[in-house]
Amino acid sequence: MSVPAEEAIEHERRLLIVAAARELAEAEGWVGLSVRRVAERADMDLGDLYRHFADQEAVLAAVAVHGFADLAAALTAAHADNPCPERAWAVMATAYLDFAYANPAVYDAMLALTPDLALGAAGVPAAPRAVFAALRAALLPLAQGRDPDTLAEVGWSLLHGVVMLTRGGRLRPEAQEEREEMITERLLWWPCSSDGNPVGARGAMP
């Protein structure tokens, strides 16, 4: 069913506001960012912006939800490009870290500035849940009797922790590559069969 023209226009204007806020935040950070400046960046009247978003917090939440959608898409693409199931976590984790470092302000909106988007909270949009589901799917074969939801939370916590500590300058810069390799390649292992080969691994040697 086609979307009415007026509704499509309103949707495009909302996307324009979100894009303007995202661009400003990535260039200057969230501190001091006002809805007036977002409206100017989007080339619209302040009243028009308020027709779409009630306040600055609503704009921030929209940026966060769109960021989660972009991250979910990046994880899905990484999974689709990976022919080896035993490398699913490594590939997903790398895609996650790449996104987080490339979009620091959006990442802050997603995971530092919008507590209402926490998993388990009522009415959480589909996009944050899609990110969790992608990480959970990558880690599911590694659960080996452990609760897969908890394992996914731990995996996500590892990724988020290294992102925030690295960005904050709290970790040794020279060890960044080794830290990320440890998280993606060495902390969680693909289960092995009795012959020592990864279970389900494609191209495993007999």
Structural descriptors:
single chain; 206 residues; mainly alpha; 9 helices; 64% helix; globular
Description:
It is a single chain. The chain is 64% helix and 0% strand. It contains nine helices and no strands. The chain has helices at 5-28, 35-41, 46-52, 56-80, 88-102, 104-111, 126-139, 148-167, 176-186. α1 packs across α4 (56-80) and α4 packs antiparallel against α5 (88-102). The protein is globular, with a radius of gyration of 20 Å.
Architecture blueprint of SSEs:
Blueprint (H helix, E strand, L loop, with lengths): L4 H24 L6 H7 L4 H7 L3 H25 L7 H15 L1 H8 L14 H14 L8 H20 L8 H11 L20
Helix pairs in contact: 1-2, 1-4, 4-5, 4-6, 4-7, 5-7, 5-8, 5-9, 7-8, 8-9
3D shape: globular
Helix content: 55-70%
What characterizes the major β-sheet?
A: none
Number of helices: 9
Low-pLDDT sequence parts: 193-206
User: On the 0-100 scale, what is the average pLDDT?
Assistant: 90
**What is the CA-based Rg, rounded?**
20 Å
The N- and C-terminal alpha carbons lie at a distance of: 53 Å
Order of helices and strands: HHHHHHHHH
The proportion of residues in beta strands is: under 5%
Beta strands, count? 0
Class from helix and strand fractions? mainly alpha
